[in-house]
Design brief:
about 450 residues, 2 domains, two-stranded antiparallel sheet
């Protein structure tokens, strides 16, 4: 059946999901490679893991941990799922997707439980694909659990879950049960969480050795089955952690991540790239560029307009809009950010009666702008106006990083230039800051 967007405003509203990432083959997917200028992104990523998608050469590194940066909601997961499909199809990699938002608590996440989720996801993938390992290959992981679970806990619920897991049947399914109970204990906010974390840290050397040995056993099996040469983890959701957890995970505990000798991709928030404390431990130079509606000199980027117009009309039928101008105005005021376009569409559906007209569009833009007004300070408006006036002089201080994180400042061309969010340019604070700027002889022609 041919896919068709809904022509019912209420249905469109109920189907908007900000956290939804599209799987390969989803009819709502829109190609944005040209619009982003990301033609080399996948090739660069694949080469980091030792595979040339064009020449098909393969020289995989022993280990590689890569950060995949981008604005939150800019489409990183959707793109990575496509990349994962291509890497899987190469038969060089066995890609294991790890959704930490589903398995763990995003508001209190550390490497200890992230590694548990990685192991659990690998085991689940093996079970789903019908693979089995002998008990000798699984024993190091079981032995590690035996040491860690000797800790005294007050929570009968948690200890009971782990005891049940330890008594589960053998093989990979039994080990899945162990890890599932462990990650569940962390997600539910157990009062013993910090105690568990410390115990894992105390036995981390044993864990890393057992995990590494397990990965090698899996890779040997995959080679024997002519399925893949290497396991590759795609860890998603790590770009949505709280600020202090982000630094703990990617900076302070980077050595622990690197102790796992594997191939891995982690989604990471854009502002982390500019933090200056990465120290070169993790591979941190891949950025998914934003969709461009304009070039830095003000010229329209037609590929961007086309892509985001398609994205919008694959979620709301064109008949819902009173005019083409209403569609264009929504696209323009999202600034090239896919999730911001969905936020505007959601507001339109909440305000509209039977159709989305200019009045509804203007009200939605004003409402989204009001959301930014709540946290912007006079100094923020001044910084944004200055960046818009001279986009190549964006700066890299804490204030700029904060605005990037909050999407008040949007970055394009892999960091070559930045612009303020278009809805912010409608606010009085911004207009006053812009009026106070020295006259520019050649102001950019950006709307």
């Amino acid at each position: 059946m041919t896919y068709k967007a809904s022509a019912n405003i209420l249905e469109v509203l109920q189907k908007i999901e900000y956290e939804e990432a599209l799987p390969p083959g989803d009819p709502r997917f829109v190609e944005t490679t040209e619009a982003r200028g990301s033609q080399q992104t996948f090739s660069r990523l694949a080469r980091k893991f030792g595979w040339d998608p064009v020449g098909k050469a393969f020289f995989a590194p022993n280990e590689k941990h890569v950060l995949f940066f981008g604005h939150i909601g800019s489409g990183k997961t959707t793109e990575l799922r496509r990349y994962a499909q291509w890497l899987n199809e190469s038969k060089r990699y066995y890609v294991v997707e790890v959704d930490v938002l589903t398995k763990l608590d995003r508001n209190n996440l550390q490497y200890t439980e992230a590694l548990m989720a990685m192991a659990e996801s690998l085991l689940e993938r093996l079970v789903g694909d019908g693979y089995a390992l002998n008990e000798g290959d699984l024993q190091p992981m079981r032995d590690w659990f035996s040491k860690v679970t000797q800790i005294k806990v007050e929570s009968r619920e948690v200890s009971g879950e782990l005891k049940t897991g330890m008594e589960a049947s053998g093989g990979i399914p039994g080990l899945v049960k162990l890890f599932a109970n462990f990650t569940a204990a962390f997600k539910t906010g157990s009062s013993q969480k910090n105690e568990w974390r410390q115990e894992i840290r105390n036995h981390f050397t044993t864990l890393s050795a057992a995990f590494n040995q397990f990965i090698r056993s899996v890779e040997s099996l995959l080679k024997e089955k002519d399925r893949a040469d290497r396991v590759l983890f795609l860890v998603d959701g790590t770009d949505k952690m709280r600020g202090e957890d982000t630094l703990q995970f990617f900076v302070q505990d980077a050595e622990q991540l690197l102790a796992i000798q594997t191939l891995a991709i982690y989604t990471a928030p854009l502002e982390l790239k500019y933090d200056g404390r990465m120290g070169g431990k993790l591979d941190a130079d891949i950025v998914l560029p934003m969709v461009k509606l304009y070039e830095r000199d003000g010229r329209r980027c037609e590929a961007g307009w086309t892509a985001l117009t398609q994205l919008l009309l694959l979620r709301a039928d064109r008949s819902l809009f009173s005019s083409e101008e209403d569609v264009a105005k929504l696209v323009e005021h999202c600034g090239g950010h896919p999730r911001e376009l969905l936020r505007l569409l959601k507001l339109c559906c909440e305000f509209a009666d039977s159709s989305i007209d200019d009045k509804v569009v203007q009200r939605s833009i004003a409402q989204l702008a009001a959301d930014y007004r709540y946290f912007l300070k006079p100094a923020d408006y001044e910084l944004l106006a200055n960046i818009d006036n001279t986009p190549e002089q964006g700066g890299n201080d804490e204030a700029a990083q904060h605005l990037l994180h909050r999407l008040a400042l949007l970055q394009y061309n892999d960091g070559a230039w930045r612009r303020s969010h278009p809805v912010i340019r409608t606010l009085e604070g911004y207009l006053l800051a812009k009026a106070a700027l020295p006259a520019s002889p050649t102001p950019p022609a950006m709307v």
